[in-house]
Structures are given as C-alpha cells and as structure tokens.
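I hope you will forgive my troubling you with a question about protein structure. The matter concerns a single protein, recorded as an amino acid sequence and a row of backbone structure tokens. Please examine both parts with care and let me know of anything in them that strikes you as inconsistent. Here, with my thanks, is the record as I have it:
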Amino acid sequence: MRLSTTSAAARFFLLAVPLLLGALTLPARAQEYPTHAIRIIVPYAPGGQGDITARLVAEGLRTRLPQTVVVENRPGANGTIGTAQVAQAAPDGHTLLLVVASHVLTKALMPNVTFDPVKSFVPITMTARTPVVMVVSPTLPVKTLAEFVAYARSKPGELVYASAGSGSNVHVFAQWFNQLAKLNMIHVPYKGSAAAHSDLIAGRAHMVFDTLPSVQGHVAQGNLKLVAVGGTTRLPQYPDVPTIAESGYPEFEAASWGVVLAPAGTPKPIVDKLNREIVAVLRSPEVKERFASFGSEVVANSPAEMLTILQAEERRASALVRELGIEIGQ
C-alpha cells in the first residue's frame, strides 16, 4: 500500500512540475517582453481618429520599450479585414489592434464575420473619448439644428447624408437621428470620413455625423457648419452650439472612443505590462494636451474596466442596429 501511495505521489509530482514551471515562466516572459517589433494594426484608412490615436500611442511607446513600435493601416470591409488578422495573430503581445466605437457593431451587422468583437480579444485600455458632432454643408440656408430639420423636412428624399462607410458608427448615428427627427434623406457611404468632406463643402452631400477632430479644421475655416453636438454636454470650444439631446431629442447620444486590444489568450502579465506602458503614455502631459486640443478626453482605464464597457457597448449597439433595421449596403 505504501508503494502504491509513493507511486501515486511520484506520478502527481511528474504531472505537476511542468504546470508549475509553466506558471513560473509567465512573469519571466513578461519581463523579457517585447522580444521583437510591436505592430499596432489600424483597420481604417489613414487620417481618421483611430489612425491619429494609434500614432500617438506608438510614438510614446517607442521611448518606453526596447523594441520598435510601428503602425500599419489595414482598411477594408468596414474594418473587419485588419481586425480579423489581429484576431488570428499569435497571442504574444507583439500584434495589437486599435479600433474605434464602430468595432462593437460588427457582429450585429455581419453575423458571419470570422471573429467576435469581444470574445476574440483581450482589452488593454480605452485611449480616449471623442465628441461626435453634426455638421452640414455651407451651401444650405441654415445655421441651427432646428433650421436644418425644417429645411430637410421641406425636401423629402432630396438631401444626402454622408457617412464613413455603410455600417460605421456615424452611419448608425445619422440614421438614428433621421428616425427621431422624421427626416427622409439619402445615405451615401464614403471610404472614410475625410473622403466625404469635399462633397459636403461643394454641396453634393448635405449632412454628416463625424468626430470633432475630423471636422474641426473645416469648421474653423467656415467650410462646414457645426449645428449640434452628439454628446450629453456642450463642448467648451463651442459653448453656443447645443446638444441634440437638449434640442428636442433627449434619448439621442453619440460619442466615439478608441481602445487597444490584443488577441485572446495573451498572457495576463503581458497584458498588464502593456496596460502600464500605454496608460503612462496616455497620461503624459503632452499626449493629454494633444487629445484635449481636438476635444478628446483621455480615459486610460484598466483591462477589467474596459471589458465591462465593451460588453455593455456591444449590447447597446446591437439593439440599436436591430431597431433601425440597418444592414451593410444601405
């Protein structure tokens, strides 16, 4: 009996040792990480909010980590091409993803996509929240939201609202507002928000929801008219511009945000190290000042807090897509 007990203990020891050694190597791997260049994949065209944010993060990380950090734009298919590549990448912390709020719409709009926007990734941190605003073409004889609504109602089926792409978050915001305001407008999707601006300025398109950084230069130059703020509070840069909620549509709320993700299965010590380093970059005075200059507020939260937000945002976005009946291609 003693021999049997000893034999069982030996077998247990032989099985347990590799597991214990594996657990002990995780902190060591985190200490060695990164061992080669880190790629931050941005699944959108250059020049947008996601691209700007990724480059700020990469620039800061280069001074804090011993390896090169590069940003790669992989646009296409409403952000799913680059996102799918990261979902399939090795979970070793060397391939990261930076997405904006439209990421949580993916499953509702494309049920057959090869990844899950929440389960296929582990969040590192939210970068910043960015105001979404409504701007209209300078060719329209309107100055306020109320005037725009009245004008659009007088021309049913004649005005065009632009978006950064079919199924983008700004498409959803515009369709939601059109439903609330009982407007009949034509949707024209563009390949990124910047591509729509020239048509808005020329009067070929008439309204768009976009992030403040994307349109602020045009507004300052008088090329676009800022008529409403999508968030729940007015912007300090434009205190006279009302929110859509206070203008008669109290349920409306539109904002954007960025988040850094890693492939699911990335070891926790590496996730924690990435969080510490990226949070330090985001909280640096120069980066906070840069975000503030275009109306964004740095968040820099924990992976656990970001996971809760992602889950809640996906539920909210999916319900809104179903309610509005939005499909890719509309």
Remarks:
- The domain at 131-247 is CATH 3.40.190.10 (D-Maltodextrin-Binding Protein; domain 2).
